[in-house]
Specification:
The protein has 195 residues and is of the alpha+beta class. The protein has five helices and eight strands. The protein has a two-stranded antiparallel sheet. Strand 5 and strand 6 form a beta hairpin.
Length: 195
């Protein structure tokens, strides 16, 4: 793993200004591409992600998500309702993925079982991390959570892991962008009061 400064404007002396980037081998990324294409095909075939899930999906974009949210808010205001936009930025989202929870979600919510789940378990579990900066290198540390950043499987497994996180909001969110969540809530029971 090598630390990468998140933004050039951040303090280089502050460790929280860095993002851990995994150095994955060509073979690892090739295998990940095959698994990712099969996961995506399974999820699409069985419509397992919300229609408005825009992050890390083919034929979905941030632009269409923004247009959808804007449209919902304009329609709410035009109808005399209150529209609200709530945006959450999950800090270090990929690093906080609990492996046991992720495997449970993959099995229960997405129907991934047997050999496929065993392979994913072996791929994500018992990973260790070494930090290298210049000529210096840390000792290896066992990772108990997180998905590798800049990996092929990281984004899709994160989206699957976090997919049900929007269930706590009512009415249902219109758009989900991982690792940033954008919710447009239309409050139909409240009318605008003119002053």
């Amino acid at each position: 793993m090598r630390p990468l400064l998140k933004k050039p404007t951040l303090d280089a002396d502050d460790l929280s200004s860095y993002r851990p980037i995994s150095n994955l081998s060509f073979v690892s990324k090739t295998i990940e591409r095959v698994v990712d294409s099969r996961l995506t095909r399974h999820v699409d075939l069985h419509s397992l992600l919300p229609t408005n899930q825009s992050a890390y999906r083919s034929k979905h974009s941030t632009e269409t998500a923004v247009v959808s949210v804007h449209n919902e808010l304009v329609h709410a205001v035009d109808a005399g309702h209150v529209g609200a936009l709530v945006m959450l930025d999950l800090s270090s989202a990929f690093d906080t993925v609990d492996h046991d929870v992720m495997f449970n979600v993959l099995s229960v919510r997405f129907g991934i079982r047997d050999k496929a789940l065993e392979w994913l378990h072996s791929y994500f579990s018992y990973r260790s991390q070494v930090v290298s900066v210049g000529e210096s290198m840390s000792s290896a540390q066992l990772l108990k959570c997180g998905v590798p950043q800049r990996s092929v499987l990281g984004p899709m497994t994160f989206v699957m892991y976090a997919e049900d996180g929007t269930d706590v909001f009512l009415p249902s969110p219109k758009v989900f962008l991982a690792p940033k969540i954008c919710l447009s809530c239309i409050l139909l029971s409240v009318s605008l009061i003119s002053w």
